[in-house]
Amino acid sequence: MVLSRLGFVRGVFASMGLGALGGGRLFAAPPGWTPPKNANLVFGVVSDTHLRTVHGPSGRPGHNWPHKYFAAALAYFREQNVDAVMHCGDFAHRGQVEEMRFHAGVWNRIFPKNRAPDGHEVVKLFVTGNHDTEGAVYGDFVKKNYPDPAVRAKHVLQTDMATNWERIWGEKYEPVWHKEVKGYHFFGRNYQETKEELVSCLKRHADGLSESKAKGRPCFYMQHTRPL
């Protein structure tokens, strides 16, 4: 069936009602939509999880936006036997290493070694958002907890995003990346990265995109909220 954009938006708002937060289907599909029986490609989409460290003895992320919602989303995706999961940025509310690492802990519980229960790989399609790259300067939280600039730098993702990303997620950080999932092309642009890097990446994969177009396959592009 073909679902109109308005119908999709209405469904999203319906699924995000207060009743859903009370134990309903927070991640429900829009009303009337059913997946095809034999989909060529299945992937989940989540964004703006904003897990954050908190004041107090534990310093654990998940106080204001509990990690259980992120875990619930991943568990639902696992039930749907997804081929990939897309996260469109703003993992870490205050741009801290601990907040991003906490996401990885949840991911590894749901998809250990990036695998679904039947053993197939679940591809990570992740990009950074403004809170991941700039969150440490929003408010005084990070500065108050780490008054020494040298110590603070070790806790801030953007101090060395490439190293932190590889250590946490086990994959190379690229300004703009390309991944292929079951013959479908995905492109992701990390926050703050330039249009020139995007164009360069697209050019490198022009042949593959032309082949996909000939087969009638769409390609997918993702980034956090920001003009192209």
Structure description:
A three-stranded parallel beta sheet has the order 1-2-3, covered by helices on one side. The chain has one domain (42-223): Purple Acid Phosphatase, chain A, domain 2 (4-Layer Sandwich). It has 228 residues and is of the alpha/beta class. α3 runs parallel beside α4. The protein is built from ten helices and six strands, in the order ααβαβαβααααββααβ. It is 38% helix and 12% strand.
Index terms:
three-stranded mixed beta sheet; globular; three-stranded parallel beta sheet; 6 strands; 228 residues; disordered N terminus; Purple Acid Phosphatase, chain A, domain 2; 38% helix; alpha/beta
Shape, per Cα inertia axes? globular
Query: What is the tally of beta strands?
Result: 6
The Rg value, from CA coordinates, equals 19 Å
Poorly predicted regions: 1-27
Strand residue content: 5-15%
The helix/strand series, from N terminus to C terminus, equals HHEHEHEHHHHEEHHE
Examine the secondary-structure arrangement and name the CATH architecture.
Answer: 4-Layer Sandwich
Estimated structural class: alpha/beta
Largest sheet: 3 strands, parallel
Helical stretch count?
Answer: 10
Q: Provide mean pLDDT, rounded.
A: 83
Helix content: 25-40%
Q: State the separation between the terminal residues, measured CA to CA.
A: 30 Å
- In CATH, the topology is named Purple Acid Phosphatase, chain A, domain 2
**Whole-number total of structural domains:** 1
Sheet with the most strands: spatial strand order: 1-2-3
CATH class: Alpha Beta
